[in-house]
Amino acid sequence: MPDLLLELFSEEIPARMQKRASEDLQKLVTDGLVNAGLTYEGAKGFATPRRLALTVHSVTARSADTREERKGPKVGAPEKALEGFMRAAGLSSIDEAQIQSDPKKGEFYVAVIEKSGRDAQEIIAELIPGMIRNFPWPKSMRWGAGSTKPDTLRWVRPLRSILCTFGPETEDPEVVAFEVDGITSGDVTYGHRFMAPAPLRIRRFDDYTDKLNAAKVVLDSARREEIILEEAKNLAFSQNLDLVEDTALLLEVAGLVEWPIVLMGTFDERFLNLPDEVIQLTIRVNQKCFVLRDPKSGALTNRFILVSNLIASDGGKQIVAGNEKVVRARLSDAMFFWETDLKTPLQARVEKLGNIIFHEQLGTQLQRVERISALAKALAPATSANIVEAERAAELCKADLVTEMVGEFPELQGLMGRYYATAQDETGAVAAACEDHYRPQGPGDTVPSDPISVTVALSDKLDTLSGFWLIDEKPTGSKDPYALRRAALGVIRLILENNIELSLIGAIEQACSGHRNGEMQVSVADGVATDLLSFFHDRLKVYLRDQGRRHDLIDAVISESADDLQLIVRRVEALSDFLASEDGKALLSGSKRAANILRAEEKKEGRAFDGTVSSDLLSLPAEKALAEAVDASVGKAKAAVDAHDFSAAIEALSELRAPVDAFFEDVMVNDDNAQIRENRLNLLNRIRQATQTVADFSKIEG
User: What's the CATH number for 575-699?
Assistant: First the structure.
């Protein structure tokens, strides 16, 4: 079966767009083939700094013939109905339709639409130009003489040539002929921009990759990554150094070169006085280079790895020298920022936060710091944090935003706060909180454990959430511009992973009061705390399900007012363990039976059976035993729940298993005596009430 090879050759494709573009190319083409009635066995997209390529294997040579019967209106239907049917079926006359008869519905028109299959080359020649014109680049441009015309082709950078061949492996493939904006498809591509720019005539994919490789182009980005990583490690090892691996940088650099050549440069040792992260980020951002570490001490060294796209005649000396010059200049700037920042304590920078607007309706960063400090003071007892240190850390946590270093490298906010706080002799806990209060920033990020960091991190996130809830800027659908879902997950992880018992309602109300009492006036809607608590419940459910917890047990223990996340989780765990036991399964079955009977009788009579159980109306041993067991169990379970001992509460409920089983075995609930019947229904309600001390058993599956 024939294969398709497509290449779109451009002046440049930015590294950040390559992976997505190769995926889009593969999907758009293969979806188009399938929609046109063709099948294929496999496909793979590729990208380099100058080309997008796609190979599709074993494509059917022709689409199948199709036959469709489209049912129309009855014979004798109004003219307008007939016209609509003919238009939809592509008929020029109703005489072209067949008449079929149905014993029940009578005679009606049927259009038989037959379409002959088409050659794959014809389909491809029609598909590719439209795909190119509508390719979903995040940014694109026009060029040349037609750049002012609105219908001119837009591409990420000027598109120079299109290669498109199709044919079986055993024969010479043919060029699929089409034209896009003056560019005619062919069987020619080009090698490396400098080392092998001559045209290459291509037949099929194997031929394509071999000729590109000979022309100093590695087509597969994964292979380029392997080459860079392997050679960088080897070069570092040759100098008794270790490469500091950087996955994101590796991916980016592989998108900048078609023929990677790994070299090593150096910089002045005096720059090693800078924090390691500053050195790494400076070299990474400005020169896309990797840093090297001493394997014994773990400290950075004054050497770095760079990747060239050229085999230089001088062995790369000029390329290395050029990179060293730029690195030296950038590190000089960083050293200036570092030394300048150290001259001004963080405390002296706090007032400058008043010049930074956090949000037009939520005030400045200075106002945020004041709110976070007040909230940290309020939360400190729950987190076991020193109140004085918590307030101090909250006061300084945003001060590095107005430093020179963070102004140049916003990615270093928090981290530089820790460095500057340490340099001015703040306590280790306060310095750590300046960095860690941003954490966790995602599901994979670490959660701080020091009480001071935890307190400031909770305060920061709760201030953000309460503020945006107060101004009604909540996430909607997939839109969450202020990352409020991430902030809520951060609060959940901080509480659960540090075993903190905290009333969220109280914390939210405290956070809201900070907004109300600040300089900024906020119109406070009723129910903000309750609505925000519901949002936390939704995020908690997602978090626990991701942890492998049963969704029905989570729903069973979360009530609208449940605001201690730690207790919710403990309740879920205790309930899960109980329901895995025979007592648990039996009690769940019995409680559901009781609930079903109650539901049916309450619906029938239109009232609830929630009255007092009269001992005088209990005549059978089984119902007497159940009443006594329920009274004892409820008291024990409630006391255990109040003490946050959910295992003990569950154990108290487990004592109901035998009495419940015996009741349903020996007692007829719907007795002929109306008083006895109602008393027994009230007793069933007591079972329901007993189980609800721990969870809503009606929401548990099984």
Answer: 1.10.730.10
